[in-house]
Design goal:
Layout: H1 3-15, E1 21-25, H2 29-37, E2 43-45, H3 47-55, H4 65-78, E3 83-86, H5 94-107, E4 111-115, H6 134-147, E5 154-159, H7 162-165, H8 167-179, E6 184-187, H9 193-202, E7 208-211, H10 223-229, E8 233-236, H11 239-258, H12 271-277, H13 280-290
Parallel strand pairs: 1-2, 1-8, 2-3, 3-4, 4-5, 5-6, 6-7, 7-8
Helix pairs in contact: 2-4, 4-5, 5-6
Pfam family, one: PEP_mutase
Protein name: 2,3-dimethylmalate lyase
InterPro entries: ICL/PEPM (IPR039556), Isocitrate_lyase_ph_CS (IPR018523), Pyrv/PenolPyrv_kinase-like_dom (IPR015813), Pyrv_kinase-like_dom_sf (IPR040442)
Amino acid sequence: MTKAARMRQAFKQMCFSGDLVNMVVAPDALSAKIAERTGFKAIFQAGYATSAGKLAQPDRGIADFGLMSETAREIVNAVDIPVFVDADTGYGDEQNIDRLVHVYENMGAAGLFIEDQTWPKRCGHMDGKTVISEEAMVSKIHAAVNARQHDDFLIMSRTDAYAVTGLDDAIERTRQYHKAGADLVFVEAPKTKDDLQKVADSFPDVPVMANMIENGKTPLLSNEEIHDMGFSIAVHPNVLIYTSTYATEKLLKDMVELGTTKRQLDHMVTFPQFNHFIGLDDINALEQKFATAPIKL
């Protein structure tokens, strides 16, 4: 079985197991490898962190399909756990969605979500969102489901209608997206625990995702609380990009003010530790295995 097939199968089993799938969004391959080494069983690659990490730009539709797919490929290649990807609005019509499903499936992603915002989209916890019609989004879901080559490659629907037309419409849209073939569902940015609970209760037999953004519009809950409410998937989309920004700024301020990094040494891995972590030992061993004797003249 190929790595891609193993990852698709593993992710599908997680989502339908009844246990909570706990995912963190990785901005890059290194953070994905750290997440894998610390015990995460699946990784999410999403627009906010990719736009921030690669472009230092907000999640306002600036990161295009080329950047998103290349970052996803780097992450998939770096880890041996499933990677679920953010396909934004599909970057166009049904033909674009057909292509992106093939690209992500062939690179080894475990699945993707498509949202019903208009383009250029924005982070689901930002103000000013607008959505396409329910019928247009149903057509996109149909296109994504039709394009996939393996049933284990999971399609998630995301609706941002809660902020535009209210909770009831968001739930009804999601029902229609599920009927169109979405395996997993996601209602973005409910503002209260009661509304979160209503979302979970509306889909008792479908894996539903909850999005936990620090200081976002949705109450920040623990994984245990999320699972008890009936959600199957928890994603933490911004914690790594926020934490790395905080730590990097503290370090660089010290370097400017003190002219040394000595005060931060206890907050760093060492040179040997880092080289070992990123696989230098394996590279050196491979080099030795295929090394040839020098030519003598």
